[in-house]
């Protein structure tokens, strides 16, 4: 299922921590369909090093995403209790206290598997014993899902490579610009710049100006 762009985003119903403190059951993706855009991003582990920089970076830009009607959701294969514990640790001590968007507890690893971002694999050895190769945690996957529940953008980074939150915001702007104007967004487009008509004449006109 590697590339999900253009396909319906897999739904889920799992435990999550919301508002930085409350553990809830049966948190779903489908609750936002028809209402909000969603950025769902995966990270490998709680209580690590690159991961808190990403979670805090999304929190710092949260108001900008919310102004664009975007719901931010984080996910890892840790438990909801682990998420909750990490949320109690101050930022200066390596924690994520202050993060308020939902964090999913993908402890069964089904969400990461359905989005094809689960590192490591299960296999059976010659004694028919279940084994695992590599850690069964999530890569740094990110998915932009439109209000119809369709994946419109995805990117997957290896564990050591942190993502650009500004790029995620730019992709939201590009999608919403296309939906509003019906024009496509050329290379290095950013909010405030003009798009172009997806025709030969439109491309020629754009290139003549740039």
Automatic annotation (TrEMBL):
Q: Which Pfam families match?
A: 1-cysPrx_C, AhpC-TSA
Q: Which SUPFAM superfamilies match?
A: Thioredoxin-like (SSF52833)
Q: Specify where it is mainly localized.
A: cytoplasm
What Gene3D superfamilies does the database record attribute to this sequence? Glutaredoxin (3.40.30.10)
Alphabetical list of InterPro entries matching this protein: AhpC/TSA, Peroxiredoxin, Peroxiredoxin_AhpC-typ, Peroxiredoxin_C, Thioredoxin-like_sf, Thioredoxin_domain
Location relative to the cell: Cytoplasm
| Alphabetical keyword list | Cytoplasm, Disulfide bond, Oxidoreductase, Peroxidase, Redox-active center
GO molecular-function term, one example from the UniProt record: thioredoxin peroxidase activity
At the top level, the lineage of the source is Bacteria
So what family is this one in? Answer: Belongs to the peroxiredoxin family. AhpC/Prx1 subfamily.
Briefly state the protein's biological role: Thiol-specific peroxidase that catalyzes the reduction of hydrogen peroxide and organic hydroperoxides to water and alcohols, respectively. Plays a role in cell protection against oxidative stress by detoxifying peroxides.
Q: What is this protein called?
A: Thioredoxin peroxidase
Q: Which organism is it from?
A: Thermaurantimonas aggregans
């Amino acid at each position: 299922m590697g590339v999900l762009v253009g396909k319906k985003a897999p739904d889920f119903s799992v435990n999550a921590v919301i508002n930085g403190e409350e553990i809830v059951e049966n948190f779903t993706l489908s609750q936002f369909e028809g209402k909000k855009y969603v950025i769902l991003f995966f990270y490998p582990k709680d209580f690590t090093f690159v991961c808190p920089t990403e979670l805090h970076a999304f929190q710092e830009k949260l108001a900008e995403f919310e102004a664009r009607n975007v719901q931010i959701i984080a996910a890892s294969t840790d438990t909801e209790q682990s998420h909750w514990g990490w949320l109690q640790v101050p930022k200066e001590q390596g924690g994520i206290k202050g993060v308020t968007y939902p964090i999913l507890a993908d402890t069964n690893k089904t969400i990461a598997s359905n989005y094809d971002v689960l590192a490591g694999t299960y296999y059976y050895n010659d004694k028919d014993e279940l084994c695992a190769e590599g850690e069964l945690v999530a890569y740094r996957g990110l998915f932009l899902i439109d209000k119809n529940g369709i994946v419109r953008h995805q990117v997957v980074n290896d564990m050591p490579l942190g993502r650009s939150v500004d790029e995620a915001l730019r992709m939201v702007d590009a999608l919403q610009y296309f939906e509003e104007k019906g024009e496509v967004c050329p290379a290095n487009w950013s909010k405030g710049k003009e798009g172009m008509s997806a025709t030969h004449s439109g491309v020629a006109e754009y290139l003549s100006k740039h």
